[in-house]
Write a structure and sequence with these properties.
Number of helices: 8
Low-confidence stretches: none
Order of helices and strands: EHEEHEHEEHEEHEHEEHH
Radius of gyration: 55 Å
Mean pLDDT: 81
Shape: rod-shaped
Largest sheet: 6 strands, mixed
Helix content: 40-55%
Length: 382
Amino acid sequence: MIALAGIESCKSLAEFLADLIPGGVVFGLVEKDTFTWVKASKSFTIDIFRIGNKLDGDTTTMQAIREKRVLTKNIPRKVYGKRVSIVSVPVVDEDGSAVGAFSIAFPKLHPVAAAFGDFAPILVEMFPEGSYIYMSDLHKIAYAQSSKKFDMPSISVGYELSEADIAHRVIRSKKPISEEIDAAKYGLPLNISNYPLFDEDSEEIVATLGIVTPKQTAATLRQMSNNLEDSLTGIAAAIEELSASATEIYSNEGALNSDIKEILSISEEINEVSAFIKEIADETKMLGLNAAIEAARAGDAGRGFGVVAEEIRKLSAQSKSTVPRIKQLTDTIKGKVNEVSEKSNRSLDASQGQAAATQEITASIEEITSMTEELSNIAKTL
C-alpha cells in the first residue's frame, strides 16, 4: 500500500517512467471512486483512465480499495478493446483507511509480440529473396518488419484486416494457413504463412503471426521447367516420328535388297538363256553348212534348198553375234545391280545405326524430362 503522504513522489516517478517502459503504460490516481490524475505514455492509453471518470464497484481498483490490498488482474479484450493488465495499489491515510488507489495499466503482450523487435529484424534477412514478417491483433496489423530486399507497404502497421485476408481467416479457423499467391495481386508470386497465437491463460486466440516470402525464383524455375518440358515433348515427338521413318526406311531397304537379289538371279538366268541361244546358233550354222553342201551336190535341183541353207547360216551368224551383246548387257546389269546392292547394304547399316541412335536420344530425353519434373518439384518447395 501507499501512504497518502507519498503520492506526490509516486506521481513524479510515474512522469519519469511513462515513456521508458516498452509497450507503453498509463498511471492513474483514484480518490474514492474518481480519477483525479492520469499520466499515459505516447504509445498506450485506455479510455477508462481519464480524469473525472468514475469507477464501478466491480473494477479492480475499487476492489483493491475495499479489500485494502494490492490486486493484479488481466483484463480481456472485450472490456477495453485491448488486452491489458492492471495493478491497483490502495492509498491509505494516517488512520490506515483506504482513501483511494494508485493504478497502473499496461498492455498485456503476447510473448511473441514482446520479442518481435528482437527476432523479426534478424529473421527477415534469413531468406534468399528477403521476407516480410507481421503480427496482427484481432482487427489490424500491429507490428511489421520488412527486409532489405523485400517490403509489403500495402499491409503496413495499422492496416485493417478484411475477410479475404489470410490473418482474418486464421482468426476464424484458429488454425495455421499457408498458401501461394500469384503475381496478379501483388505484382510477384508470394508465399504467405500465418499462424494463430493464443493467450497463455485462457487459450483464446489473441493475435496472428505472418510471414511473406517472395517466390520469384521458384516461379521462374517452374516456368523454365515447363518450357523445357514442352520443348522436350516436341523434340521427343519429332524423334519418335524420325524413328518410325527410320524403321520404314530400313524395311524398304530390306525389300529393295531382296529385289536386287532377285534381279541378280534373273540376270543369271538370262546368261543361261544366252548360252543356250549360242548353242542353237552353232548347231544351226552346222545344219546350214551341211544343207549347202547337199544342195551343191544336187545341182540345179537343190538350188532353192541352197538359198534356204544360206539364210539359215545368216540367221545363225546373227544370233551368235547377238549373244555377246546380250552377255555384255547382262554383265553391265549385274555390275550396276551389285553396286546398288552394296549401297543398299550400307544404307541398311546406316538405318540400323540411325534407329539405334534415335533410341538412345529418346532415352536421354526421357531422362531429361524426368529431371525437369524433379526440377519443377524442387521449385515448388522453394
